[in-house]
Task: inverse folding
């Protein structure tokens, strides 16, 4: 049976502190929204928003619908795109503090939990730009909070709370399918912790039914298109992702959540297995299930990040209640969290001028990473490198396009190597009057060749020897050079060709151009 639980309502001053921390988190992300420029995926999601569907090759549909709404109401500026992720950051910090309150935490516990989340290096990165990750984190936080409320109420939980949890999980599934691990963890935790009184009610089964019902449209889309996401995941695992040893994965978890924050979430994990936290033990078991799924599935390290939220909440409670923890610890620990967070901020969010960042990175002895993918390293970590070069690429392609005779411009098409290039042409090239881009990469392949006549095709990348068998005539029109080589090496030094008259119809070539990865 659970130990004595705190009153349902905290004093106003305690609630106010949590609101202030959430507001500060939101404002920080708003005020630093511009960064180095558009991130590759932001351009792709905007393009997906212009092709609304119930699914996409590499992600469920919710992010595309949000992108469409943002473009229709706020536009496509960096501020417009990154406003909602900033709101998600503040809301996630608040919800983590609210989880701490549900499991018995008072003012200190709530503040420490929110502060840990606001400063966690990987979360700072994920809330930096417009992507499904920001909304995924928010939905996980909401699901954890609802689950904590259910654990607190026990068999007396209202059906409405269970239905709300099901709706949140369903929306999360329409955001990112990794939340399947959370659903599995919740079920396993209730069984392992022997919460039969909950499983005997209709609540969890109604929640599961609601989640499945909300996910069904995407499943139908997958069936209709031959399960492209499974092909995408297989190809990415085999050809793109680096293999990570278990020990390296664990070290990566410590670093991405913040080394100085480890005592908080580790304290939370340990405390949840203590007798006085028995009521909330399923939170810890769920975390372990999610972590095991991510480790065995060789997912990117940050996929596990949303699972740490209840551990930060529980850690705040554990430290707040620790009788042997002197008052000094409660002062020093938040100070260390803030100091460590500030030290890591420039490594996880584009705050410094590039050359200053490079010196800072070198001073810390850090080698640029590739985000767990098999790519040649550049001057910048891949996360920062993918924010460089896109406006310049669109402008270079525009110069080639506008140099064509007027008759050729009317029939010209643009073919790109990947969705980053295609998104730059579609979103940033619109101001230059460019036609829509084509690509064989992920959902661009499904969108097809836009009824391209094949008379004139501007091609980004590739070699002359590859193109000459396809076109009757090929000309090198320009070469894209990324300023100061700051973009990823595979996006630099790109030849831009003009091909005249394909030797076979584009529709014949199209099936062989597909690459889901």
Result:
């Amino acid at each position: 049976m659970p130990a004595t639980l705190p009153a349902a309502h905290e004093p106003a001053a305690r609630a106010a502190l949590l609101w202030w921390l959430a507001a500060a988190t939101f404002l920080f992300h708003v005020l630093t929204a511009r960064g180095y420029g558009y991130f590759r995926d932001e351009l792709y999601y905007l393009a997906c928003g212009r092709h609304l569907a119930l699914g996409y090759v590499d992600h469920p549909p919710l992010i595309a619908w949000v992108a469409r709404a943002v473009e229709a109401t706020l536009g496509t500026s960096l501020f417009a795109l990154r406003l909602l992720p900033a709101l998600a950051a503040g809301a996630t910090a608040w919800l983590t503090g609210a989880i701490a309150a549900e499991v018995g935490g008072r003012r200190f516990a709530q503040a420490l939990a929110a502060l840990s989340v606001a400063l966690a290096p990987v979360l700072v990165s994920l809330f930096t730009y417009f992507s499904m990750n920001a909304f995924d984190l928010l939905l996980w936080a909401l699901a954890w909070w609802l689950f904590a409320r259910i654990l607190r109420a026990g068999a007396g939980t209202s059906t409405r709370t269970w239905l709300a949890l099901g709706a949140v999980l369903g929306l999360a599934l329409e955001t990112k399918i990794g939340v399947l691990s959370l659903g599995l963890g919740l079920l396993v935790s209730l069984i392992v912790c022997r919460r039969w009184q909950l499983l005997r009610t209709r609540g969890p089964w109604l929640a599961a039914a609601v989640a499945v019902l909300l996910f069904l449209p995407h499943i139908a889309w997958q069936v209709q298109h031959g399960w492209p996401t499974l092909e995408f995941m297989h190809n990415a695992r085999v050809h793109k992702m680096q293999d990570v040893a278990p020990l390296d994965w664990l070290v990566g978890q410590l670093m991405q959540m913040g080394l100085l924050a480890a005592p908080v979430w580790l304290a939370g994990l340990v405390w949840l297995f203590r007798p006085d936290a028995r009521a909330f033990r399923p939170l810890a078991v769920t975390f372990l299930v999610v972590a095991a799924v991510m480790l065995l599935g060789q997912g990117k390290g940050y996929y596990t990040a949303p699972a740490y939220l209840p551990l930060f909440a529980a850690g705040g409670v554990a430290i707040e209640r620790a009788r042997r923890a002197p008052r000094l610890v409660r002062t020093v620990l938040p100070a260390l969290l803030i100091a460590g967070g500030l030290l890591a901020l420039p490594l996880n969010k584009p705050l410094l001028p590039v050359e200053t960042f490079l010196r800072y990175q070198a001073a810390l002895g850090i080698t640029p990473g590739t985000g767990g993918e098999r790519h040649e390293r550049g001057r910048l970590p891949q996360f920062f490198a993918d924010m460089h070069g896109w406006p310049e690429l669109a402008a270079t392609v525009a110069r080639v396009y506008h140099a064509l005779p007027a008759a050729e411009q009317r029939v010209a098409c643009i073919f790109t190597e990947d969705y980053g290039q295609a998104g730059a042409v579609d979103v940033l090239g619109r101001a230059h009057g460019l036609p829509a881009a084509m690509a064989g990469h992920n959902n661009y392949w499904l969108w097809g060749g836009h009824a391209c006549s094949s008379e004139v095709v501007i091609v980004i990348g590739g070699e002359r020897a590859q193109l000459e068998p396809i076109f009757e005539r090929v000309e090198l029109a320009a070469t894209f050079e990324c300023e100061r080589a700051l973009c990823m090496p595979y996006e630099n030094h790109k030849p831009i060709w003009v091909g005249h008259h394909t030797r076979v119809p584009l529709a014949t070539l199209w099936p062989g151009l597909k690459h889901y990865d």
Observations:
- Residues 1-12 have pLDDT under 50 and may be disordered.
- The radius of gyration is 25 Å.
- The chain has three domains: 12-348, 354-385, 390-513.
- The chain has 25 helices and five strands.
